[in-house]
From TrEMBL, chain A:
SMART domains: Zn_pept (SM00631). One of its GO terms (molecular function) is zinc ion binding. The active site is at E287 (proton donor/acceptor). Residues 23-321 form the Peptidase M14 domain. GO terms for cellular component: extracellular space. Keywords: Carboxypeptidase, Hydrolase, Metal-binding, Metalloprotease, Protease, Zinc. Belongs to the peptidase M14 family. The gene is LOC110512988. GO terms for biological process: proteolysis. Pfam families: Peptidase_M14. Its cofactor is Zn(2+). This is Carboxypeptidase O.
Automatic annotation (TrEMBL), chain B:
The gene is LOC110507055. Belongs to the protease inhibitor I47 (latexin) family. It holds the Pfam family LXN. Keywords: Membrane, Protease inhibitor, Repeat, Transmembrane, Transmembrane helix. It comes from Oncorhynchus mykiss. This is Cystatin LXN-type domain-containing protein. Residues 91-190, 209-317 form the Cystatin LXN-type domain. The keyword Repeat applies.
Length: 348, 320
């Protein structure tokens, strides 16, 4: 059954792998692709179902890293929290393919795969994503697919306003018919709860949190509330600006860096803010291409360049995170050891 | 600088200094207790400095970001339908070009330029704000001045613009007033293409129509591109009129368009467009009656806001 499903998927599409990553894929294609990634890379890729959507579908992540005996530090990336932002799941797929393609030959990627595990959710809002594929009139759906309550007959809650991070305070709607509806309460949505639960279990280990959106060409740092600053704002800005510089070097695109209230709008209940609040030091929202010409409906011929530049940006952040965690510790150990050696010689 | 960042910085410096200092002492003395202290110090400071918070209520308010223009005292609440958007309003002063007030104002300039100069072969977007300032006009509104670069999307020609905007405040909000002058945009010579397009479509024996432009995959058929661009320019009339300091509009899609009989040498179209308003994230449907000719440019004769279709949202397979 597995083989026939695999061949059924491929017979509908171009068979060259290069073409696969330059097209958008529906949820069943992405699910099949996740299975393929595990099958082709059994030593480094496993998957984990960590929650259920409103319509009872699995929320699945890929865990990617060279196995080790001890507990490893982690990088979290999620895509597709907003259904209509199709370039985001496309980027998660591209990112996975890139690290799997290069970890054996690229010493830096190899080192990071040794020291870190990547937890990547290609589609977080599975129900919404499937709905946005239903027909042309549903393409611009954003929210989850849970029904309204209390006499409100519209559908969906904005998952990125539903997290327990200054929930409901600013930049939200309390009407279930609106796109930034924050839900009846924080974590009313099972999708937001699934992420919260995972992050809570892993929070000691997660070094960086990246959540991928479109559009606008922005890198947003916490917090969404205009009166609250992250304790490491300067570091977040420095790393974010470094990522924007790396992005620009690829295809010349400008990405603006700042807090959401500074460069875009105030908002609360976002996953990025929640990650920072529970102590994950480097937490960023990426808003990918473009700046409004196509908006959510980015042409497929822009998937590859968008993914290339976003990959450079993400790698800048991940490399910084990795080196800060592992090189400063190693440097300390080296200094300690050299001191011991000096002392031993003196004592002798 | 936020206090936590200052402490983290000091700790890092202190630990490096401590390492050097302590290692010197150890070399010259035989203080093993100091050595143990060194190991403990370095191991502790070797890990990334992190502030772990329990719970997730708001953190203590810190001072404003070092890069920002001082925030105003007033908090302005605007009610748009049922949604509430609470934003701090910038007071008079120099604008940070990468912050939202300058970016929103630049988008308004973009809409204005399209209403003045746009055509099926000329569609303008702003690229960068270089500098700007804003000033309160007592009890009337706020005035902006901007220097920005814009780009014409078909020819890729860039232009440098100086613009002045005025956002009126108060009941019955009227449209912002914009003046702008640009250098460099006239370099895109669209006369030949526009004339050919006009001649091709002015005879009424083959009226064109289309829908879902771009389609779900972002694709626009080459033959549909001028109609897409015309839709974008026509939408600019609405987006300009509807803009204020709390909005950021783009056209998301031409849902459909139908060519009508040419009248008075003007091509005529009914358009149904979807506008994306970024701050509320709403998709807003408008119907427009649009005319165009190379001489007269784009004109929008009628606009009609379409209501949101709430019953359209129900799951596809429900039977009730």
């Amino acid at each position: 059954m597995c083989v026939s499903m695999y061949s059924a998927v491929w017979s509908r599409e171009e068979t060259t792998e290069r073409n696969y990553y330059t097209r958008y894929h529906n949820m069943s294609e992405i699910t099949a692709w996740m299975e393929q990634m595990k099958r082709e890379n059994p030593d480094v890729v496993s998957s984990m179902v960590y929650g259920q959507t409103y319509e009872r579908r699995n929320i699945t992540l890929l865990k990617i890293g060279l196995s080790s005996t001890g507990r490893k530090k982690a990088i979290w990336m999620d895509c597709g929290i907003h259904a209509r932002e199709w370039i985001a799941p496309a980027f998660c797929q591209y990112f996975v393919r890139e690290i799997l393609r290069t970890y054996k030959t690229d010493t830096k990627v190899n080192e990071m795969m040794k020291n870190l595990d990547f937890y990547i959710t290609p589609v977080l809002n599975v129900d919404g994503y499937i709905y946005s594929w239903h027909n042309e009139s549903t393409r611009l759906w954003r929210k989850s697919r849970s029904p309204g309550t209390g006499g409100c007959t519209c559908y969906g809650t904005d998952l990125n306003r539903n997290f327990y991070a200054n929930w409901g305070m600013v930049g939200v709607s309390t009407d279930c018919c609106f796109e930034t509806y924050c839900g009846t309460k924080a974590l009313s949505e099972s999708e937001a709860w699934a992420v919260t639960d995972m992050l809570g279990k892993m929070r000691e280990d997660i070094l960086a949190f990246l959540t991928i959106h479109s559009y606008g060409q922005l890198i947003l740092v916490p917090y969404g509330h205009p009166n609250i600053s992250a304790p490491n704002y300067d570091e977040l800005m420095e790393v974010g600006l470094g990522a924007a510089k790396a992005i620009k070097a690829v295809h010349g695109m400008d990405y603006t860096v700042g807090t959401s209230p500074d460069v875009l709008y105030a908002n609360s209940g976002s996953s990025r803010d929640f990650a920072r609040l529970i102590g994950i030091p480097l937490s960023f929202t990426f808003e990918l291409r473009d700046k409004g010409e196509h908006g959510f409906e980015l042409p497929e011929d822009q998937i590859q360049p968008t993914c290339e530049e976003a990959y450079a940006g993400a790698q800048h952040i991940i490399t910084y995170t990795h080196d800060k965690a592992f090189y400063s510790y190693a440097a300390t150990v080296r200094a300690t050891l050299s001191t011991i050696i000096c002392l031993y010689k003196k004592v002798k | 600088m936020p206090i936590y960042t200052q402490l983290a910085f000091l700790r890092t410096t202190q630990s490096s200094l401590a390492l050097v200092f302590c290692s010197q002492i150890l070399v010259w003395s035989m203080g093993w207790t100091l050595f143990i202290l060194l190991v403990v110090l370095t191991v502790v400071h070797g890990n990334p400095t992190m502030t772990v918070r329990t719970g997730s209520g708001p953190t203590v308010g810190f001072d404003q970001h070092p890069n920002s223009v001082p925030l105003g005292e007033d908090i302005q609440t605007t009610t748009e339908g049922e949604s509430e958007v609470v934003e701090e309003v910038m007071t008079t002063g120099v604008l940070n070009p990468s912050h939202y007030p300058a970016r929103r104002a630049a988008t308004v300039v973009q809409h204005y330029l399209n209403t003045r100069y746009g055509s099926p072969y000329r569609w303008i977007f702003f690229s960068t704000v270089h500098s700007g300032s804003s000033e309160d006009v007592a009890e009337m509104g706020r005035k902006y001045q901007l220097e920005l670069t814009v780009q014409e999307m078909i020819s890729n020609v860039s232009g440098q613009c100086s613009a002045e905007l005025f956002f009126p405040e108060g009941e019955g909000q009227s449209a912002p007033q914009v003046q702008a002058s640009c250098e460099g945009l006239h370099q895109s010579n669209t006369t030949a293409q526009e004339e050919a397009f006009y001649q091709q479509h002015r005879a009424s024996n083959n009226l064109v129509s289309g829908n879902n432009i771009p389609d779900s995959y972002g694709h626009v058929e080459p033959s549909m591109k001028p109609f897409w661009q015309l839709g974008g320019v026509a939408s600019s009339f609405i987006m300009l009129r509807e803009s204020n300091e709390s909005t950021l509009y783009n056209m998301a899609q031409v849902a459909n368009f139908t060519q009508l009989e040419t009248e008075k040498d003007q091509l005529r179209f009914n358009y149904h467009v979807l506008l994306h308003e970024m701050i509320s994230q709403e998709i807003i449907h408008w119907k427009l009656l649009v005319t165009w000719s190379p001489e007269q440019g784009v004109q929008v004769l009628q606009t009609e806001l379409q209501p949101k279709c709430h019953h359209c949202e129900a799951p596809p397979n429900t039977t009730n």
